[in-house]
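Retry 2 of 3 after timeout on previous attempt. Resubmitting structure tokens to design endpoint.
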């Protein structure tokens, strides 16, 4: 039954979006805009570490239990961020975001739990369902930023604590939902026969990493951009919702496209989308954020179609988030140097060489023996 997997992932997405956006604003006020990406860097590193730990817990126990452990660590992180917002040391914010990252890793890796629970003919559909359902939490969560801020003020707490309380409630609910996830088959047994090494897998991992880097570098700068332009959390919430709709809402279309054309075509389209979005964001921000989100979706699901074992999944996921920590740390600094045009130039530098490599390598195909179902 996919409902608990889907619900937990959606709630965790809402928690991470709320905490990430407001933590950047908190640090921008306290330490300056150039350092605003540091809490999200902690969250990214926590996601990388969490992916490794969840992979180990999965091997020792099972996926369902490993996901519960991850969400449990996320609850501790949410509580820690609240303490930092109500007057605790600023270091607690970094610790809390790191621990929230482990919960985020559980949500990300839960797409493979969905694949394990589904019949062989519907595994890819199950994966895309989890990603698609994340729209509910990731797109809906930002609209609660301003109301949660008001609620905190009414309760006599600092207004900035509201979104962190929202994140804590969401990740705790994700933990509760995860207790209903059924145990799956042993995680070290591949779901499908597929390549686990070689150039196709390296290129797929590269596409997933670059998609994450470009998206994170731009999105880390968005809260700083709105704050410097004196826009409120309502405007920021709209921007984040548009972006997350692009990330998740069209996942069924991506699944259908992979089924029809294979991962290579989808990954190429994702890389092209990254390039267009990076250039477009220098002229009009909000529409480009939707395209950026869907380009990431194409890179992420297209690359995931090449992977087929729990060990490989967790290693690639950890690598994605380890490398993207660099983007969250440097993005605000680059943004202060030249705004979105500097970030666009960095994105082009990353994506163009990989686009050429994928174009030249024609053997990137769907995993052997798999017919990705039409959604």
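Retry 2 succeeded. Sequence:
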């Amino acid at each position: 039954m996919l409902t608990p997997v889907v619900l937990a992932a959606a709630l965790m997405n809402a928690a991470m979006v709320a905490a990430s956006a407001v933590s950047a604003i908190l640090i921008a006020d306290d330490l300056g805009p150039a350092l605003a990406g540091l809490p999200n860097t902690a969250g990214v590193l926590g996601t990388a570490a969490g992916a490794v730990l969840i992979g180990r817990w999965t091997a020792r126990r099972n996926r369902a239990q490993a996901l519960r452990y991850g969400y449990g660590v996320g609850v501790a992180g949410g509580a820690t961020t609240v303490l930092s917002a109500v007057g605790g040391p600023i270091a607690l914010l970094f610790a809390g975001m790191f621990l929230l990252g482990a919960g985020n890793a559980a949500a990300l890796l839960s797409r493979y739990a969905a694949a394990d629970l589904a019949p062989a003919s519907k595994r890819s559909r199950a994966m895309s369902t989890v990603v698609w359902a994340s729209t509910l939490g990731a797109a809906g969560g930002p609209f609660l930023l301003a109301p949660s801020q008001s609620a905190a003020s009414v309760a006599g707490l600092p207004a900035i604590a509201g979104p962190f309380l929202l994140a804590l409630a969401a990740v705790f609910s994700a933990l509760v939902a995860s207790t209903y996830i059924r145990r799956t088959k042993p995680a070290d047994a591949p779901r499908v026969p597929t390549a686990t090494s070689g150039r196709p897998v390296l290129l797929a991992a590269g596409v997933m990493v670059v998609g994450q880097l470009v998206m994170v570098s731009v999105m880390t700068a968005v809260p700083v951009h709105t704050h410097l332009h004196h826009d409120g959390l309502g405007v920021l919430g709209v921007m984040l919702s548009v972006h997350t709709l692009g990330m998740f809402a069209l996942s069924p279309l991506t699944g259908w496209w992979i089924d029809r054309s294979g991962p290579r075509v989808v990954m190429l389209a994702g890389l092209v989308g990254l390039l267009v979005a990076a250039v477009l964001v220098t002229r009009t921000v909000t529409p480009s954020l939707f395209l950026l989100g869907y380009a990431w979706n194409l890179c992420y699901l297209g690359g995931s179609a090449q992977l087929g074992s729990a060990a490989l999944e967790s290693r690639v996921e950890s690598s994605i988030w380890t490398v993207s920590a660099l983007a969250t740390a440097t993005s605000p600094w680059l943004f202060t140097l030249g705004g979105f045009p500097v970030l666009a130039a960095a994105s082009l530098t990353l994506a163009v060489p990989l686009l050429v490599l994928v174009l030249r390598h024609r053997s990137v195909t769907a995993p052997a023996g798999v017919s990705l179902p039409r959604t």
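Attempt log closed. The chain has 14 helices and no strands.
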